[in-house]
User: Fold DUF1934 domain-containing protein from Coprococcus hominis.
Amino acid sequence: MTTRDIKIKVTGVQSVAGADDEPEVLELETRGTYSEKNGNRYIKYDEFIEDVEEPVKNLLRFDEHALQLTKRGSVNTVMLFDREKNSSVHYATPVGPICMNICTEEYHMEQSEKGIRIDIRYCIDFNNDYITDCSLNVTADYEGV
Assistant:
């Protein structure tokens, strides 16, 4: 298994159902590692949350068809983004657990000699009620380290 250092940018956008507010945009730029093993690709990086001392450890496991995001630390969850199936998510947060469903509408992964780009569009529902449209964009740059 080959591992290389990367510069990673993660952008998440949420549009709340029925709200006139601007979409909420969260961006994270950090360093991490990229590796490949048994046909899967992996990106690992730490995320620091305001007022929390320990970082949240993030692991992205992905291929051409789907991405699994695992978070461990003050936030614990496993989220699956796959157009072929909806997934239930149990999100353990410092303020309590949240259970929701994810419906992946679009998933696109592109890899080049410069890095990787992943674009995901999905919606979240809670108790079978639509809540929000979301997007997640991940860019991993091999040369930016």
Observations:
- The chain has a mean pLDDT of 89.
- Residues 66 and 99 are 21 Å apart (CA to CA).
